[in-house]
Amino acid sequence: MNDRDAGLSAAAAPAPEPALYVPPNPEPEENIQHSLFGEILDWMLAPLLLLWPMSIAITYLVAKSIANQPFDHALEDSVTVLSQQVKEVDGHAVSRLPGPARDILRADDVDNVYIQIVGPHREIVDGDRALPLPFDEERYRTGTVHFRNDVVHGTQVRVAFSYVNLRPLARPDEEPQTALVQVAETLEKRAQLANEIIKGVILPQFIILPIVLALVWFALARGLSPLAQLQERIRARRPDDLSPIDSRQVPEEISPLVGSLNDMLERLSQTIEMQKRFIADAAHQMKTPLAGMRMQSELALRQCDPGEIHRSLEQLAKSSESATRLVNQLLALARAENQPHAGNAFEPLDLAQLARATVQDWVQASFAHRIDLGFEQPDAPADIAGNPIMLREMLSNLIDNALRYTPAGGSVTVRVRAEGETAVLEVEDTGPGIAQAERAHVFERFYRILGSAAPGSGLGLAIVREIAQQHGAEIEVFNNPRSFASKAPGCLFRISFPPPAPPDLEHPS
Asked: Is the pTM of this model over 0.70?
Protein backbone atom coordinates (compact mmCIF):
# COMPACT_ATOMS: atom_id res chain seq x y z
CA MET A 1 0.00 0.00 0.00
CA ASN A 2 1.57 3.30 -1.02
CA ASP A 3 1.07 6.82 0.25
CA ARG A 4 -1.02 8.11 -2.71
CA ASP A 5 -4.00 8.33 -0.40
CA ALA A 6 -3.03 9.02 3.18
CA GLY A 7 -6.55 8.38 4.41
CA LEU A 8 -6.61 4.80 3.08
CA SER A 9 -5.12 2.20 5.43
CA ALA A 10 -5.24 -1.52 5.98
CA ALA A 11 -7.02 -1.08 9.29
CA ALA A 12 -9.73 1.06 7.79
CA ALA A 13 -13.11 -0.53 8.12
CA PRO A 14 -15.05 -1.04 4.92
CA ALA A 15 -17.52 1.75 4.32
CA PRO A 16 -21.17 0.65 4.43
CA GLU A 17 -22.75 0.16 1.09
CA PRO A 18 -25.24 2.88 0.17
CA ALA A 19 -28.81 1.76 0.42
CA LEU A 20 -30.44 0.98 -2.88
CA TYR A 21 -33.57 3.03 -3.45
CA VAL A 22 -36.54 0.82 -4.17
CA PRO A 23 -39.45 2.71 -5.71
CA PRO A 24 -42.88 1.88 -4.34
CA ASN A 25 -44.87 -0.60 -6.30
CA PRO A 26 -47.47 1.22 -8.38
CA GLU A 27 -51.05 0.17 -8.20
CA PRO A 28 -51.71 -2.54 -10.78
CA GLU A 29 -53.71 -1.26 -13.68
CA GLU A 30 -56.81 -3.14 -14.65
CA ASN A 31 -56.25 -4.87 -17.98
CA ILE A 32 -59.43 -5.18 -20.00
CA GLN A 33 -59.16 -7.35 -23.07
CA HIS A 34 -60.97 -5.94 -26.08
CA SER A 35 -62.28 -7.84 -29.07
CA LEU A 36 -61.09 -6.61 -32.46
CA PHE A 37 -64.21 -8.09 -34.05
CA GLY A 38 -66.42 -6.29 -31.54
CA GLU A 39 -64.55 -3.00 -31.95
CA ILE A 40 -64.95 -3.02 -35.75
CA LEU A 41 -68.57 -4.13 -35.47
CA ASP A 42 -69.32 -1.32 -33.02
CA TRP A 43 -67.72 1.31 -35.25
CA MET A 44 -69.69 0.04 -38.26
CA LEU A 45 -73.07 -0.47 -36.60
CA ALA A 46 -73.07 2.57 -34.32
CA PRO A 47 -73.19 5.09 -37.22
CA LEU A 48 -75.73 2.88 -39.01
CA LEU A 49 -78.05 2.72 -36.00
CA LEU A 50 -77.55 6.44 -35.41
CA LEU A 51 -78.32 7.41 -39.00
CA TRP A 52 -81.37 5.15 -39.25
CA PRO A 53 -83.62 7.32 -36.96
CA MET A 54 -82.32 10.41 -38.75
CA SER A 55 -83.27 8.79 -42.05
CA ILE A 56 -86.78 8.11 -40.74
CA ALA A 57 -87.17 11.74 -39.62
CA ILE A 58 -85.92 13.10 -42.95
CA THR A 59 -88.19 10.67 -44.80
CA TYR A 60 -91.16 11.89 -42.77
CA LEU A 61 -90.42 15.53 -43.61
CA VAL A 62 -89.93 14.74 -47.29
CA ALA A 63 -93.15 12.71 -47.31
CA LYS A 64 -95.10 15.61 -45.81
CA SER A 65 -93.64 17.96 -48.41
CA ILE A 66 -94.57 15.59 -51.22
CA ALA A 67 -98.07 15.11 -49.78
CA ASN A 68 -98.64 18.88 -49.52
CA GLN A 69 -97.87 19.61 -53.17
CA PRO A 70 -100.99 18.14 -54.89
CA PHE A 71 -103.35 19.44 -52.23
CA ASP A 72 -101.76 22.90 -52.37
CA HIS A 73 -102.31 22.93 -56.14
CA ALA A 74 -105.97 22.06 -55.58
CA LEU A 75 -106.34 24.87 -53.03
CA GLU A 76 -104.63 27.26 -55.43
CA ASP A 77 -107.11 26.34 -58.20
CA SER A 78 -110.02 26.90 -55.82
CA VAL A 79 -108.72 30.34 -54.85
CA THR A 80 -108.23 31.21 -58.52
CA VAL A 81 -111.82 30.19 -59.35
CA LEU A 82 -113.23 32.18 -56.43
CA SER A 83 -111.13 35.22 -57.32
CA GLN A 84 -112.66 35.24 -60.79
CA GLN A 85 -116.15 35.38 -59.26
CA VAL A 86 -115.53 38.43 -57.05
CA LYS A 87 -116.67 41.75 -58.59
CA GLU A 88 -117.33 45.32 -57.45
CA VAL A 89 -120.91 46.57 -57.44
CA ASP A 90 -121.62 50.10 -56.19
CA GLY A 91 -118.27 50.22 -54.34
CA HIS A 92 -118.81 46.87 -52.63
CA ALA A 93 -117.36 43.43 -53.31
CA VAL A 94 -119.91 40.88 -54.50
CA SER A 95 -119.46 37.11 -55.00
CA ARG A 96 -121.15 35.70 -58.07
CA LEU A 97 -120.35 32.09 -57.20
CA PRO A 98 -123.48 29.97 -57.75
CA GLY A 99 -124.68 27.75 -54.92
CA PRO A 100 -123.93 24.46 -56.72
CA ALA A 101 -120.40 25.62 -57.42
CA ARG A 102 -119.94 26.52 -53.76
CA ASP A 103 -121.16 23.07 -52.77
CA ILE A 104 -118.70 21.47 -55.18
CA LEU A 105 -115.83 23.44 -53.61
CA ARG A 106 -116.91 22.34 -50.14
CA ALA A 107 -117.52 18.72 -51.14
CA ASP A 108 -114.94 16.48 -49.42
CA ASP A 109 -115.43 13.09 -47.76
CA VAL A 110 -112.43 13.43 -45.42
CA ASP A 111 -111.46 17.05 -44.81
CA ASN A 112 -113.50 20.12 -43.90
CA VAL A 113 -113.24 22.94 -46.44
CA TYR A 114 -113.71 26.58 -45.44
CA ILE A 115 -114.35 29.44 -47.91
CA GLN A 116 -114.15 33.13 -47.09
CA ILE A 117 -114.41 36.34 -49.15
CA VAL A 118 -113.57 39.61 -47.40
CA GLY A 119 -114.36 43.01 -48.93
CA PRO A 120 -112.17 46.10 -49.12
CA HIS A 121 -113.51 47.36 -45.80
CA ARG A 122 -112.86 44.06 -44.01
CA GLU A 123 -116.48 43.04 -44.22
CA ILE A 124 -117.33 39.37 -44.71
CA VAL A 125 -118.85 39.07 -48.16
CA ASP A 126 -119.31 35.30 -48.23
CA GLY A 127 -118.17 32.13 -46.48
CA ASP A 128 -117.12 31.19 -42.96
CA ARG A 129 -116.49 33.93 -40.42
CA ALA A 130 -114.32 31.65 -38.24
CA LEU A 131 -111.48 31.65 -40.76
CA PRO A 132 -108.84 34.11 -39.40
CA LEU A 133 -107.32 36.85 -41.52
CA PRO A 134 -103.61 36.71 -42.51
CA PHE A 135 -101.02 38.67 -40.55
CA ASP A 136 -99.01 41.49 -42.11
CA GLU A 137 -101.28 41.86 -45.10
CA GLU A 138 -99.21 44.63 -46.67
CA ARG A 139 -96.43 42.27 -47.76
CA TYR A 140 -98.68 40.14 -49.98
CA ARG A 141 -99.05 41.15 -53.62
CA THR A 142 -102.34 41.30 -55.44
CA GLY A 143 -103.09 38.42 -57.80
CA THR A 144 -100.64 35.95 -56.22
CA VAL A 145 -101.81 32.91 -54.25
CA HIS A 146 -100.09 32.49 -50.88
CA PHE A 147 -100.18 29.67 -48.34
CA ARG A 148 -100.06 29.52 -44.57
CA ASN A 149 -100.92 27.17 -41.71
CA ASP A 150 -103.59 28.26 -39.29
CA VAL A 151 -106.19 26.98 -36.80
CA VAL A 152 -109.98 26.89 -37.24
CA HIS A 153 -112.20 25.61 -34.41
CA GLY A 154 -109.09 24.15 -32.71
CA THR A 155 -108.07 22.16 -35.81
CA GLN A 156 -104.97 22.65 -37.92
CA VAL A 157 -105.79 23.82 -41.46
CA ARG A 158 -103.90 24.69 -44.61
CA VAL A 159 -105.00 28.08 -45.99
CA ALA A 160 -104.58 29.37 -49.55
CA PHE A 161 -105.40 33.08 -49.98
CA SER A 162 -105.07 35.85 -52.54
CA TYR A 163 -105.87 39.56 -52.79
CA VAL A 164 -108.07 40.50 -55.76
CA ASN A 165 -107.97 44.00 -57.30
CA LEU A 166 -111.60 44.98 -57.79
CA ARG A 167 -110.96 47.90 -60.18
CA PRO A 168 -107.99 49.48 -61.93
CA LEU A 169 -106.55 52.67 -60.39
CA ALA A 170 -107.68 55.91 -62.11
CA ARG A 171 -105.12 58.12 -60.32
CA PRO A 172 -101.78 57.31 -58.71
CA ASP A 173 -102.87 58.74 -55.34
CA GLU A 174 -106.08 56.70 -55.30
CA GLU A 175 -106.17 53.80 -52.82
CA PRO A 176 -106.68 50.35 -54.40
CA GLN A 177 -109.87 48.40 -53.78
CA THR A 178 -108.94 44.82 -52.98
CA ALA A 179 -110.83 41.85 -51.71
CA LEU A 180 -109.42 38.85 -49.84
CA VAL A 181 -110.27 35.36 -51.02
CA GLN A 182 -109.37 32.41 -48.72
CA VAL A 183 -109.87 28.66 -49.03
CA ALA A 184 -108.81 26.38 -46.16
CA GLU A 185 -109.02 22.67 -45.51
CA THR A 186 -108.04 20.34 -42.68
CA LEU A 187 -104.98 18.04 -42.96
CA GLU A 188 -106.43 14.52 -42.74
CA LYS A 189 -105.85 13.60 -46.39
CA ARG A 190 -102.36 15.05 -46.28
CA ALA A 191 -101.52 13.03 -43.16
CA GLN A 192 -102.92 9.87 -44.72
CA LEU A 193 -100.86 10.35 -47.89
CA ALA A 194 -97.72 11.13 -45.88
CA ASN A 195 -98.24 8.00 -43.77
CA GLU A 196 -98.66 5.90 -46.87
CA ILE A 197 -95.42 7.28 -48.30
CA ILE A 198 -93.60 6.64 -45.01
CA LYS A 199 -94.94 3.10 -44.80
CA GLY A 200 -93.81 2.44 -48.34
CA VAL A 201 -90.32 3.71 -47.56
CA ILE A 202 -89.78 2.68 -43.90
CA LEU A 203 -91.28 -0.81 -43.86
CA PRO A 204 -88.78 -2.19 -46.40
CA GLN A 205 -85.99 -0.81 -44.20
CA PHE A 206 -87.11 -3.09 -41.34
CA ILE A 207 -86.53 -6.00 -43.69
CA ILE A 208 -83.30 -4.63 -45.20
CA LEU A 209 -81.69 -3.67 -41.85
CA PRO A 210 -81.39 -7.25 -40.48
CA ILE A 211 -80.03 -8.35 -43.86
CA VAL A 212 -77.46 -5.54 -43.72
CA LEU A 213 -76.47 -6.56 -40.17
CA ALA A 214 -76.08 -10.17 -41.22
CA LEU A 215 -73.97 -9.17 -44.23
CA VAL A 216 -71.76 -6.93 -42.06
CA TRP A 217 -71.31 -9.78 -39.57
CA PHE A 218 -70.42 -12.21 -42.35
CA ALA A 219 -68.05 -9.72 -44.01
CA LEU A 220 -66.22 -9.08 -40.73
CA ALA A 221 -65.94 -12.78 -39.97
CA ARG A 222 -64.65 -13.36 -43.48
CA GLY A 223 -62.22 -10.44 -43.30
CA LEU A 224 -60.79 -11.52 -39.93
CA SER A 225 -60.47 -15.17 -40.89
CA PRO A 226 -56.74 -14.74 -41.77
CA LEU A 227 -56.13 -13.88 -38.12
CA ALA A 228 -57.79 -17.13 -37.04
CA GLN A 229 -55.76 -19.06 -39.62
CA LEU A 230 -52.55 -17.40 -38.39
CA GLN A 231 -53.50 -18.33 -34.84
CA GLU A 232 -54.04 -21.96 -35.83
CA ARG A 233 -50.70 -22.08 -37.64
CA ILE A 234 -48.88 -20.69 -34.61
CA ARG A 235 -50.66 -23.11 -32.24
CA ALA A 236 -49.78 -26.04 -34.49
CA ARG A 237 -46.06 -25.31 -34.14
CA ARG A 238 -43.79 -27.41 -31.97
CA PRO A 239 -42.73 -25.77 -28.69
CA ASP A 240 -39.12 -25.59 -29.88
CA ASP A 241 -39.94 -24.21 -33.35
CA LEU A 242 -38.72 -20.61 -33.42
CA SER A 243 -38.47 -20.30 -37.20
CA PRO A 244 -39.93 -17.14 -38.81
CA ILE A 245 -43.60 -17.05 -39.73
CA ASP A 246 -44.28 -16.92 -43.47
CA SER A 247 -45.65 -13.41 -44.06
CA ARG A 248 -46.73 -14.20 -47.64
CA GLN A 249 -49.82 -16.05 -46.39
CA VAL A 250 -51.24 -13.12 -44.40
CA PRO A 251 -52.95 -9.92 -45.57
CA GLU A 252 -50.91 -6.80 -46.12
CA GLU A 253 -52.32 -5.13 -42.97
CA ILE A 254 -51.06 -7.98 -40.75
CA SER A 255 -47.60 -8.15 -42.34
CA PRO A 256 -46.07 -5.55 -39.93
CA LEU A 257 -47.38 -7.58 -36.97
CA VAL A 258 -45.94 -10.78 -38.41
CA GLY A 259 -42.65 -8.97 -39.05
CA SER A 260 -42.52 -7.86 -35.41
CA LEU A 261 -43.26 -11.41 -34.27
CA ASN A 262 -40.46 -12.72 -36.47
CA ASP A 263 -38.06 -10.17 -34.99
CA MET A 264 -39.08 -11.24 -31.50
CA LEU A 265 -38.67 -14.92 -32.42
CA GLU A 266 -35.21 -14.19 -33.78
CA ARG A 267 -34.18 -12.38 -30.59
CA LEU A 268 -35.70 -15.14 -28.48
CA SER A 269 -33.84 -17.75 -30.51
CA GLN A 270 -30.57 -15.88 -30.00
CA THR A 271 -31.24 -15.55 -26.28
CA ILE A 272 -32.03 -19.23 -25.89
CA GLU A 273 -28.94 -20.13 -27.90
CA MET A 274 -26.81 -17.91 -25.68
CA GLN A 275 -28.32 -19.50 -22.58
CA LYS A 276 -27.61 -22.95 -23.94
CA ARG A 277 -24.00 -22.02 -24.65
CA PHE A 278 -23.72 -20.39 -21.24
CA ILE A 279 -25.07 -23.47 -19.45
CA ALA A 280 -22.82 -25.74 -21.49
CA ASP A 281 -19.75 -23.58 -20.79
CA ALA A 282 -20.65 -23.29 -17.11
CA ALA A 283 -21.08 -27.07 -16.81
CA HIS A 284 -17.77 -27.57 -18.59
CA GLN A 285 -16.00 -25.10 -16.29
CA MET A 286 -17.55 -26.65 -13.18
CA LYS A 287 -16.32 -30.10 -14.12
CA THR A 288 -12.67 -29.20 -13.52
CA PRO A 289 -12.91 -28.03 -9.88
CA LEU A 290 -15.45 -30.72 -9.04
CA ALA A 291 -13.27 -33.42 -10.56
CA GLY A 292 -10.29 -32.05 -8.64
CA MET A 293 -12.26 -32.05 -5.40
CA ARG A 294 -13.37 -35.62 -5.94
CA MET A 295 -9.84 -36.77 -6.85
CA GLN A 296 -8.29 -35.07 -3.82
CA SER A 297 -10.94 -36.46 -1.47
CA GLU A 298 -10.41 -40.00 -2.81
CA LEU A 299 -6.64 -39.53 -2.53
CA ALA A 300 -6.96 -38.34 1.06
CA LEU A 301 -9.07 -41.39 1.91
CA ARG A 302 -6.34 -43.70 0.60
CA GLN A 303 -3.46 -41.91 2.36
CA CYS A 304 -2.21 -42.87 5.80
CA ASP A 305 0.55 -40.28 6.11
CA PRO A 306 -0.78 -37.19 7.93
CA GLY A 307 1.39 -34.94 5.74
CA GLU A 308 -0.04 -36.35 2.54
CA ILE A 309 -3.55 -36.09 3.94
CA HIS A 310 -2.87 -32.44 4.83
CA ARG A 311 -1.63 -31.68 1.32
CA SER A 312 -4.71 -33.37 -0.18
CA LEU A 313 -6.93 -31.33 2.07
CA GLU A 314 -5.14 -28.14 1.01
CA GLN A 315 -5.73 -29.00 -2.65
CA LEU A 316 -9.35 -29.82 -1.80
CA ALA A 317 -9.72 -26.40 -0.18
CA LYS A 318 -8.23 -24.69 -3.23
CA SER A 319 -10.59 -26.57 -5.57
CA SER A 320 -13.51 -25.67 -3.31
CA GLU A 321 -12.45 -22.03 -3.35
CA SER A 322 -12.20 -22.11 -7.15
CA ALA A 323 -15.64 -23.69 -7.47
CA THR A 324 -17.13 -21.17 -5.03
CA ARG A 325 -15.64 -18.27 -6.97
CA LEU A 326 -16.95 -19.68 -10.25
CA VAL A 327 -20.46 -20.08 -8.82
CA ASN A 328 -20.39 -16.55 -7.38
CA GLN A 329 -19.29 -15.09 -10.69
CA LEU A 330 -21.98 -17.05 -12.53
CA LEU A 331 -24.57 -15.64 -10.13
CA ALA A 332 -23.16 -12.13 -10.52
CA LEU A 333 -23.28 -12.40 -14.31
CA ALA A 334 -26.86 -13.72 -14.17
CA ARG A 335 -27.89 -10.80 -11.92
CA ALA A 336 -26.21 -8.31 -14.25
CA GLU A 337 -27.84 -9.75 -17.38
CA ASN A 338 -31.33 -10.01 -15.87
CA GLN A 339 -31.67 -6.28 -15.32
CA PRO A 340 -33.65 -5.13 -18.42
CA HIS A 341 -34.96 -2.07 -16.57
CA ALA A 342 -31.90 -1.34 -14.48
CA GLY A 343 -32.09 2.35 -15.42
CA ASN A 344 -35.28 2.67 -13.36
CA ALA A 345 -33.34 1.76 -10.18
CA PHE A 346 -30.40 4.13 -10.76
CA GLU A 347 -29.72 6.79 -8.16
CA PRO A 348 -27.32 9.73 -7.97
CA LEU A 349 -23.99 8.82 -6.36
CA ASP A 350 -20.38 9.97 -6.09
CA LEU A 351 -18.20 7.59 -8.10
CA ALA A 352 -15.08 8.58 -6.13
CA GLN A 353 -16.67 7.75 -2.79
CA LEU A 354 -17.94 4.40 -4.08
CA ALA A 355 -14.53 3.52 -5.57
CA ARG A 356 -12.73 4.46 -2.33
CA ALA A 357 -15.00 2.19 -0.27
CA THR A 358 -14.50 -0.67 -2.75
CA VAL A 359 -10.71 -0.32 -2.72
CA GLN A 360 -10.75 -0.53 1.07
CA ASP A 361 -12.38 -3.96 0.80
CA TRP A 362 -9.36 -5.24 -1.20
CA VAL A 363 -6.58 -3.92 1.01
CA GLN A 364 -6.04 -7.22 2.83
CA ALA A 365 -6.04 -9.15 -0.45
CA SER A 366 -3.36 -6.81 -1.83
CA PHE A 367 -1.23 -7.48 1.25
CA ALA A 368 -1.63 -11.23 0.67
CA HIS A 369 -0.45 -10.80 -2.93
CA ARG A 370 2.34 -8.38 -1.84
CA ILE A 371 1.04 -5.76 -4.27
CA ASP A 372 0.89 -2.01 -3.70
CA LEU A 373 -2.83 -1.04 -4.01
CA GLY A 374 -3.46 2.68 -4.35
CA PHE A 375 -6.34 5.03 -4.92
CA GLU A 376 -6.35 8.47 -6.53
CA GLN A 377 -9.49 10.54 -6.15
CA PRO A 378 -10.43 13.78 -7.92
CA ASP A 379 -10.58 17.20 -6.32
CA ALA A 380 -14.34 17.47 -6.87
CA PRO A 381 -17.10 14.86 -6.62
CA ALA A 382 -17.62 12.72 -9.73
CA ASP A 383 -21.40 12.48 -9.88
CA ILE A 384 -23.05 9.73 -11.91
CA ALA A 385 -26.37 7.86 -11.88
CA GLY A 386 -26.11 4.14 -11.26
CA ASN A 387 -26.74 1.09 -9.17
CA PRO A 388 -24.16 1.11 -6.36
CA ILE A 389 -24.29 -2.67 -5.80
CA MET A 390 -23.65 -3.44 -9.47
CA LEU A 391 -20.91 -0.79 -9.71
CA ARG A 392 -19.11 -2.23 -6.67
CA GLU A 393 -19.30 -5.66 -8.31
CA MET A 394 -17.84 -4.24 -11.52
CA LEU A 395 -14.93 -2.49 -9.76
CA SER A 396 -14.28 -5.53 -7.56
CA ASN A 397 -13.87 -7.70 -10.65
CA LEU A 398 -11.44 -5.19 -12.18
CA ILE A 399 -9.36 -5.03 -8.98
CA ASP A 400 -9.40 -8.83 -8.59
CA ASN A 401 -8.34 -9.24 -12.22
CA ALA A 402 -5.47 -6.76 -11.74
CA LEU A 403 -4.28 -8.43 -8.50
CA ARG A 404 -4.31 -11.87 -10.11
CA TYR A 405 -2.22 -10.86 -13.15
CA THR A 406 0.20 -8.48 -11.39
CA PRO A 407 3.31 -10.18 -10.03
CA ALA A 408 4.43 -9.72 -6.43
CA GLY A 409 6.08 -6.38 -5.84
CA GLY A 410 3.97 -4.71 -8.54
CA SER A 411 1.34 -2.04 -8.10
CA VAL A 412 -2.38 -1.58 -8.86
CA THR A 413 -3.92 1.86 -8.94
CA VAL A 414 -7.62 2.78 -8.97
CA ARG A 415 -8.22 6.30 -10.21
CA VAL A 416 -11.35 8.45 -10.54
CA ARG A 417 -11.21 11.72 -12.48
CA ALA A 418 -13.54 14.06 -14.30
CA GLU A 419 -13.36 15.10 -17.96
CA GLY A 420 -15.94 17.85 -18.21
CA GLU A 421 -19.27 16.29 -17.30
CA THR A 422 -17.94 12.76 -17.89
CA ALA A 423 -16.72 10.74 -14.90
CA VAL A 424 -13.85 8.35 -15.68
CA LEU A 425 -12.88 5.27 -13.67
CA GLU A 426 -9.44 3.73 -14.33
CA VAL A 427 -7.77 0.59 -13.01
CA GLU A 428 -4.14 0.20 -14.00
CA ASP A 429 -1.60 -2.46 -13.09
CA THR A 430 2.01 -3.41 -13.84
CA GLY A 431 1.23 -6.92 -15.02
CA PRO A 432 1.99 -8.54 -18.37
CA GLY A 433 -0.68 -6.49 -20.18
CA ILE A 434 -3.04 -7.62 -22.92
CA ALA A 435 -1.95 -7.95 -26.53
CA GLN A 436 -3.77 -5.84 -29.09
CA ALA A 437 -5.22 -8.93 -30.81
CA GLU A 438 -6.61 -10.26 -27.51
CA ARG A 439 -8.38 -7.09 -26.37
CA ALA A 440 -11.45 -7.79 -28.50
CA HIS A 441 -11.94 -11.19 -26.83
CA VAL A 442 -11.08 -10.71 -23.15
CA PHE A 443 -14.67 -9.58 -22.40
CA GLU A 444 -16.15 -12.82 -23.74
CA ARG A 445 -17.40 -15.42 -21.31
CA PHE A 446 -14.90 -18.10 -20.22
CA TYR A 447 -12.23 -16.65 -22.50
CA ARG A 448 -8.72 -17.16 -21.19
CA ILE A 449 -5.53 -15.88 -22.82
CA LEU A 450 -3.35 -18.79 -23.90
CA GLY A 451 -0.26 -19.21 -21.74
CA SER A 452 -1.75 -17.38 -18.77
CA ALA A 453 -0.87 -19.06 -15.49
CA ALA A 454 -3.12 -16.90 -13.29
CA PRO A 455 -6.12 -18.73 -11.86
CA GLY A 456 -9.57 -17.61 -12.96
CA SER A 457 -12.80 -18.59 -14.63
CA GLY A 458 -12.89 -16.11 -17.50
CA LEU A 459 -16.10 -14.44 -16.24
CA GLY A 460 -14.79 -11.36 -14.43
CA LEU A 461 -14.37 -9.10 -17.46
CA ALA A 462 -17.64 -10.36 -18.95
CA ILE A 463 -19.38 -9.14 -15.78
CA VAL A 464 -17.54 -5.81 -16.09
CA ARG A 465 -18.69 -5.30 -19.68
CA GLU A 466 -22.31 -6.22 -18.88
CA ILE A 467 -22.57 -3.77 -15.97
CA ALA A 468 -20.83 -1.01 -17.93
CA GLN A 469 -23.23 -1.42 -20.86
CA GLN A 470 -26.25 -1.24 -18.56
CA HIS A 471 -24.94 2.06 -17.21
CA GLY A 472 -24.33 3.44 -20.71
CA ALA A 473 -20.58 3.55 -20.05
CA GLU A 474 -17.78 2.92 -22.53
CA ILE A 475 -14.95 0.58 -21.58
CA GLU A 476 -11.50 0.70 -23.21
CA VAL A 477 -8.27 -1.27 -22.73
CA PHE A 478 -4.76 0.25 -23.09
CA ASN A 479 -1.22 -0.45 -22.10
CA ASN A 480 -0.31 1.20 -18.80
CA PRO A 481 1.49 4.46 -19.75
CA ARG A 482 3.04 4.63 -16.24
CA SER A 483 4.69 1.20 -16.27
CA PHE A 484 7.90 2.47 -17.87
CA ALA A 485 9.87 1.44 -14.78
CA SER A 486 8.70 -2.14 -15.20
CA LYS A 487 9.70 -4.53 -17.95
CA ALA A 488 6.01 -5.53 -18.40
CA PRO A 489 3.73 -3.20 -20.42
CA GLY A 490 0.98 -3.31 -17.80
CA CYS A 491 -2.70 -2.81 -18.46
CA LEU A 492 -5.13 0.10 -18.10
CA PHE A 493 -8.93 -0.37 -18.04
CA ARG A 494 -10.78 2.91 -18.57
CA ILE A 495 -14.58 3.22 -18.08
CA SER A 496 -16.23 6.52 -19.06
CA PHE A 497 -19.68 7.22 -17.55
CA PRO A 498 -22.21 9.58 -19.15
CA PRO A 499 -23.34 12.62 -17.13
CA PRO A 500 -26.36 11.98 -14.88
CA ALA A 501 -29.76 12.88 -16.28
CA PRO A 502 -31.54 15.90 -14.74
CA PRO A 503 -33.90 14.97 -11.88
CA ASP A 504 -37.52 14.28 -12.72
CA LEU A 505 -39.52 17.01 -11.02
CA GLU A 506 -42.78 15.08 -11.35
CA HIS A 507 -41.43 11.81 -9.94
CA PRO A 508 -38.48 12.64 -7.66
CA SER A 509 -36.53 9.74 -6.22
From this structure: no
